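Async update (no meeting this week)

Hi team, since we skipped the sync, here's where things stand on the single-chain job. The sequence we agreed to prioritize is pasted below, unchanged from the tracker. I ran it this morning and attached the output directly underneath so nobody has to dig for it. Comments welcome in thread, and please keep replies under the output.
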Amino acid sequence: CALPISKKLLEKAGVSYRVVYADERQGAAFAEAHSIIQAPTLLMPEADGPRKLTNIGEIAGYLRKREPVTA
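Output:
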């Protein structure tokens, strides 16, 4: 399962996230509403709607390109 890897990448980058399990009732509704059909999938809010990143490679690439968050 790629979930532990994606969680570690997000934590290292300082990105807050929420894990949703599609095999649970609320998670299934969320996945259907956002056309999520694979895991891991990361939805990132953007001005024109959420951006969907659908695998470890896309998530890691996005995190490498984004500007670091400073406190």
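Quick observations from my side:
Strands lie at 42-44, 51-53.
The chain has a mean pLDDT of 89.
Reply here if anything looks off.
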